[in-house]
Design goal:
Length: about 325
Amino acid sequence: MTFDPDAAGAPGSGIFGLPFTRDQAGIVLLPVPFDATTSYGHGTARGPDAIFDASMQVDLYDRRLGRIYERGIYMEPSDETIASLSESARALAAPLIEAGGADPKKDAAAIAKIDAAGERVAAFTYDHTVRVLKEGKVPGLVGGDHSTPLGAIRACAELVKGGLGILHIDAHMDFREAYEGFTYSHASIMYNVLKSVPGVSKLVQIGIRDFGEGEMDFGIEQGSRVHTCYDDQWAEQMLRGTAFEDLCKDAIARLPQDVYISFDIDGLDPALCPRTGTPVPGGLSFHEASLLLWTLKQSGRRVVGFDLVEVCPGADDEWDANVGARILYKLCGTVT
Ligand SMILES: [Mn+2]
């Protein structure tokens, strides 16, 4: 194989312009083009394709994380059945969301169909993730909205003995129970994880700055299982002279040895993801996100899987996908 990591990606090459087959790869990425219940703005279902295209621009040597590509990275082809499932579920959900949320009685038939689509996606990502883990590879999911990784997280938690920690980067807690009436809502992912995946022993949230009081109370009720780092609190501590890296170290020290990273792009400053479904001012800069991932790597923890969700490409502007591809590459770089 002749492969020059400093050359432009050859036509027909894989993600990041890499030449690896699935067999050769240590990291297998699964595109999940699904965003049935995104409440404000949509288009994250087009995220995986746009990230793939933008990934060709990413330089392969990372000053901190080194030759990330040497792990071997492969992205599965997009599954057309998931894309069409997303479209049909979205067509049912959109008018209900527009009306302010689904009515459990009046809209029962539509809700059942939308929830069934969510279950299909969970089964799909679970099966794929189990297969990748059994092969001794590391699974990475590329969404789609934040409902998509539930099955992947379940599979990773089942593999790990002694408890899986989740490093959750997001503007939102995602603790809503059946947000707008939908069980598998993007705003409910961590509620569903905590309720239905007992193998998750710890959830550490970073970037949090938009949440309901009920969500905050739900997090507090979980006791030591949930640790939320509020974005404004970190900003205030930094203004008073605390180093960002020390805040990262304190957060990461709370995680067990085995970690799954769930990276919602809206955890970043919205200047880096202007088209994402629910942008919120504040958030991590690109350098802060990079340093956070580096600090996790330096801690010696094992990243057993990860996802990148809510990247929403523009029709004729690849900025969101460009940032997404670079975060995705660094996520690959956290894998040992
Ligand atoms: Mn989220």
